[in-house]
Amino acid sequence: MKLTHTPLIIGNWKMNPQSLLVATSLAKEVLKEVSRVQHVDVGIAPPSIFLESVAALTKGKKLKVVAQNVFHEGLGARTGEISLPMLKSINVAASIIGHSERRALGETNEDTNKKMLAIVKSGGTAILCVGEKERDQHGNYLSFVEQELRDALEDFPKAKLAQLVVAYEPIWAIGTGNTATPHDALEMKLFIQKLLSDLYGRPSLAKVRILYGGSVSKQNAAELLVDGHADGFLVGGASLRSAEFGEIVKIAERHVRDSI
Ligand code: PGA
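Structure tokens for the assembled complex are given below, as produced in the milestone run.
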């Protein structure tokens, strides 16, 4: 079956590794792993303190550097925060927004929306994370994700949808080894597509990649791509192992080749 999107795979390093030295060597290893990849977009999201060094290493290369979070204001008395102009000044043009680990620290849907609007205004790309805490039998998880998505996208302009990526990350699957089944992942992808189509019209679906995240590994990547129809992945733990991350990217590359 012909693919609708170029797969996108982003490694979310979270609060790892412990030093700049290890971060730059991990970035170099990842660069080597993905150097021959042609049909997959690849990014890594190091902690903000390492962004500049990693961005300098990957400058002009296919590997994109992504922030894990950003504040919606540009300048001022906001101790501990990082702004979009700061990211732009070191050539970082994309950010993960609304990761469940940020939400667990108190980030609300309203905060997420402010970040989405700021990033789209700055010309950058937002990787918006949504996902339920648990899957209940009554389907409440669907309305939970719907609310997260609708709130995050309030006033997000249709003309800027190319700057949006959605990552479905069920919280119960993050860091647990309990990956969503391809069926579960596909069900949610279709649900998110239906919401996007209601909000922006069907042609909008061609612009937005819907990734899956939550215990993605080299063992489950192929089935999530083939049967789950994921447009790519947000990879946490496995992205800290360059060989495994590289393997996941290569699995996606083979998936594209098989689909041509
Ligand atoms: P995980 O994390 O792959 O370690 O489950 C995914 C994420 O939180 O983005």
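The pocket of 2-phosphoglycolic acid is lined by residues 12, 169, 174-175, 213-216, 234-238 (CB under 6 Å). The mean pLDDT is 97. Further analysis is deferred to the final report.
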